[in-house]
């Protein structure tokens, strides 16, 4: 039985990293006070005291992640750890005061090869933390090379990491553990299309087996495409397979957005969880089949139990995220996906009292803590830009009114990127939105034939109704 409160011993501040001088003044005072407290304790007990220096903290290298990477950098940078980020031009992390160095290596095809080339000359001894699937795949396929170069890759079993990047394999592991998944058919070649079309009920969803490859090659940020008849399914699969993608045709589990649940944990070397964190989605964008733009932290016991059952059954070690949906037909949880890395839940977990990036970092370097005895519940994570767009889409379908939307926001909100002591990532993000909107309004945003954007425009009939 999972327990929301896990008994963990307190960690002496001596074992935690020491901040650098350039950190915000309030943080320096806090760490100075902790150092004095430990000095007093050492004097009273007669033990020796030797405060760790910034040089004792191996640097951290963040691989990709976009917005997800920002709270990771803030957590580690606040603890006095040099953060090196590899990303692309629009990434807000490049503007964060907690990012010691940013290298623009682009995204898309060949990004893993470019990262590996950079790592040939990167800071030795650094902890490597993937914030997207490309980073995770790089670690899983090149762990031995990274170790030989002197790096410390994030903890995990590489075969399980790769399995979690393949939704077909993920579902197979879930069913082997006795858990339920959506009814699905894998489509890896053109020969599989007829069987999938004949066995599917409509509407159904076309879902990529490898999400990071789908994002690169299709030019859409959608998680899946919904089709309403056999003709749309066949044409959609033919086009997607032509892009070198492997797909899955899956049933659409009935139920609202508020029946989608998240679980985060860290499974140690003995297969035991260091904490449990659960949350409920409230709205998504794109609506019904997109990414959460509003969610709340709640303790949901059966989500924690089923998630731990899946993770231990799969043999996963390290950082883990599991998504579920409760089926409106029978009330049972169905596995949606599992990610072996940091996710957009980071700011909500931080606000709730779980410093996940520092916990992961300390596990890699062999330090204890920070301990997680409990966390605050009922806190909300709100993405204003995406939620406004979601509201307009929901209202166009008469699924929500303005009054209902406003009432749902009458809580103290946690924002994905904004922090008063580190505002530049938010400023850069808003400027990018402004420029994008201006291009659309002035007609300067063009879609060229043959580009992924053109493919996306041609296939709007495959998107959700």
Automatic annotation (TrEMBL):
GO terms for molecular function: ATP binding; metal ion binding. Residues 171-365 form the ATP-grasp domain. PROSITE patterns: ATP_GRASP. This is ATP-grasp domain-containing protein. It comes from marine sediment metagenome.
